[in-house]
Design a protein that fits this description.
Length: about 350
């Protein structure tokens, strides 16, 4: 097979769910994926790394995607010329006039993403097709899990991860929304419901996403009375969906209890054990099995490793917990040399 140079793609979005979804869709392409949760974080990264393509969320706290785009164009390196695509649930009429190369609609359709990547010569790195349609999908009230799986590119592992992330982040989302309502901060309220709208649609919570959209539209039309009158209903819907998601994961963990007990058992160190564990962890990272990858690192840290190796394992564990898989893989790759089975 002809070798393909790897491109670099930056995805900027204030929603972790949206980042995980787009990263998952991009994983089979010949590209290294960088992520940022804000415009400021994106620019800090772009001062260090030159990328080939940028996907930039339209509405984010502190500054919008359009404001961030203008600052990117002023960067003192080649990133000022990097093509930028605006991501949003609704397309801007004047997107070309604003300078963007184009628009990517949320939830992201794999075919639309593929068309953009092909335009810049970014092709599939592997002939890996995810098709988990026949897999046992979780049954969660208020969520069309089949639609959510479609949005995750038919990758069941990615879908489970975005479900978990949505559930874990819901409490903070509710605290944020309550604060914006209490302080009459409609600007940040609109930005928040915008992010939650696409996140809800991504997991298949279509009615909840539609309710977020109604609040976003009301805010854009300055109909703040509608927002305040209907906020309690919106919060109730979010709490109910979050409760059902968390119930699913609690039941899932209970069912896996025996397996987890086995994982926690510490075995006697044998020759090549550490190297094999690092190799397994790299595979888990590639498969987006961050919980399993983290478990491997936790277990390794209980062994009598040399100071350098232990510190690298700690760093890798930290990056795994932050969903920064590229950084974790880079550290672990430095520990493992394929084919030689030796610890460096």
């Amino acid at each position: 097979m002809e070798s393909i140079n790897r491109s670099k793609i930056l995805v900027v979005d204030d929603s972790k769910v949206n980042l995980i979804v787009l990263r998952g869709l991009l994983q089979s392409y010949s590209a290294d994926i960088l992520t940022a949760l804000s415009g400021k974080e994106a620019r800090q990264l772009l001062l260090k790394e030159v990328v080939d393509l940028i996907f930039l969320d339209k509405l984010m706290p502190e500054e919008s995607g359009i404001e961030c785009y203008k600052k990117i164009k002023e960067l003192p390196n080649d990133n000022s010329k990097t093509p930028v695509y605006l991501t949003s649930a609704t397309e801007e009429d004047d997107i070309k006039e604003l300078g963007f190369e184009g628009f990517l609609k949320k939830p992201v359709e794999p075919e639309a993403l593929s068309a953009i990547l092909e335009k810049y010569g970014i092709k599939k790195a592997v002939d890996k097709i995810f098709n988990d349609k026949k897999a046992d999908l979780p049954k969660i009230e208020g969520i069309n899990t089949g639609k959510g799986l479609d949005n995750a590119g038919m990758n069941g592992k990615i879908y489970i991860k975005i479900l978990e992330t949505f559930g874990e982040s819901s409490k903070q989302a509710i605290r944020d929304l309550r604060y914006y309502i209490k302080t009459d901060d409609m600007e940040n309220y609109i930005i928040k419901v915008h992010a939650l709208k696409s996140s809800a649609w991504n997991i298949g919570a279509m009615e909840l996403g539609n309710e977020f959209e109604r609040h976003e539209t009301a805010g854009s039309n300055e109909d703040y009375h509608y927002i305040k009158v209907n906020y309690e209903h919106l919060e109730h819907m979010l709490m109910e969906v979050s409760k059902e998601i968390n119930k699913y994961f609690e039941n899932r963990k209970e069912a896996q209890k025996d397996t987890k007990k086995e994982i926690k058992k510490i075995k006697e160190v044998k020759e090549g054990f550490v190297e094999n564990q690092v190799k397994d962890c790299l595979q888990y990272i590639e498969d987006f099995e961050d919980e399993a990858a983290a478990k491997v690192m936790v277990n390794l840290l209980q062994y009598n490793l040399d100071i350098s190796t232990k510190e690298k394992c700690r760093q890798a564990l930290g990056f795994i917990k932050q969903f920064d898989y590229d950084a974790a893989a880079a550290i672990l790759t430095g520990l493992y040399k394929t084919g030689e089975n030796v610890l460096l």
